DNA sequence: GGGCATCATTTGGGATACAATTTTGGACAC
DNA sequence: GTGTCCAAAATTGTATCCCAAATGATGCCC
């Protein structure tokens, strides 16, 4: 309880165990017994039980016989698979959404998200708080979409699969944070958000689905590609002024080269 | 414990609660407290906790504020949505599978499943044991596909979503069981299995995915359509003889036109 | 009489005690 | 030497107990 994060302990344990699986503290094949991990993490069996079940549902553990669970091999491409599954599900969501139409309140909420994202690019320079603010807006945008698609089962499936890739990325991609490529990556993500929302409004379910499926990979492939493109280049940005609608939110940037 | 099913009580409670949600024993909006449902079902809070969390992950419950969970409205179209989600995920699985190819052991296993399915149609007349046998083979076929796609996360997501539509169907579709339409429905399902396997072997991921997505709806739409087609018609089936390969498992029907 | 604060009750989260089951180790017999 | 059986240890499943937090009600003060 001396930890800074004041979550509900059960989530803390879940995140901690997922992290330990991903960073190799619990190597593949390790048998996780409830009592063992309980005293290992300093809590009782109750949160451990919940975490183990959740991790098994997320595909990180599988039962070894009738006794206990074992850590599964998590390969680098598994993160891509997880992202792809998430993209497939979210793509299905926006396709449905384009078919049934946006309710006014939802439409307004989504617009506000994107406007705030655009304001972020226009008014603030990149930094840790920038990334944090964008992350919050990003989560808001996506979860609004999930809730709007009017299918509790689909929403649950997406929510289920949302933590997995995030956990993987946080565990693997933590060290490298180049501000310039991050900025461009987020700008691409924001632009994809705009395309998706416009496609939904136009009732173009196919396009919304395709872009959303691609959008799922913005965490990995795009960062890589932008890094290659910007390698050794001088990049400058200026805040975009006069942003009357969402089409104008294409920023120009200024910064020092790495 | 006087029940016939000797499962691990936790699963029994989960199935029981899901059933009660679906058949209206727990109407939408009902607040499910751990203690209340515990004494309602005659067990302690422990299995209830697990069941409530699982049902929330499946999309049947959502938290009402910070206190407790409430039964969500389960509309008839939600079953279709759940089936669609499952179809999307399984479609993704077979698409991947067509890309990476079938390992020999998996290929043989799938072949055996389909051969046994075909034998079923050839050697046995329709009845309860027929449906049960087919159901077993169907589950075997699908879970073999899931395991083969080499993505633990995807497999977990599919397994997660597999119980939901089944539970819904068992709860809703129990009364109507017309043997002739059931026979044809299973025959269509079997044929789709064959098409999917062949598409995977040919590396045609797009076709495998499309057919699998359609196959997800074989439980509902097809039964309905076959029922309409066969309405009032006399249907007789003869066992197909001389089935040397899987192409021959197409039954012949004879009857009067509507 | 209304608003706010405080207290009680409800409820979920966590810990622990208990039961059932399975695995594993060893010993004994063949 | 090997196989089988029994017992003990380990581990999960289940029940109960405690506690913290939230919600609703009641009373007091303004």
How would you characterize the overall build of this protein?
Chain A has about 260 residues and is mainly alpha-helical. Chain A folds into 2 domains: about 10-70, Winged helix-like DNA-binding domain superfamily/Winged helix DNA-binding domain (Arc Repressor Mutant, subunit A); about 75-255, Up-down Bundle (Four Helix Bundle (Hemerythrin (Met), subunit A)). Helix content of chain A is about 65%, strand content about 5%. The first copy, chain A, is built from 10 helices and 5 strands, in the order H-E-H-H-E-E-H-H-H-H-H-H-H-E-E. In chain A, the strands form 2 sheets. Chain A has a 3-stranded antiparallel β-sheet with strand order 1-3-2. Chain A has a two-stranded antiparallel sheet with strand order 4-5. Residues about 1-5 and about 240-258 of chain A have low confidence and may be disordered. The interface of A and B includes residues 81, 82, 89 and 160 of A. Chain A binds a DNA duplex (30 and 30 nucleotides) through helix 2 and helix 3.
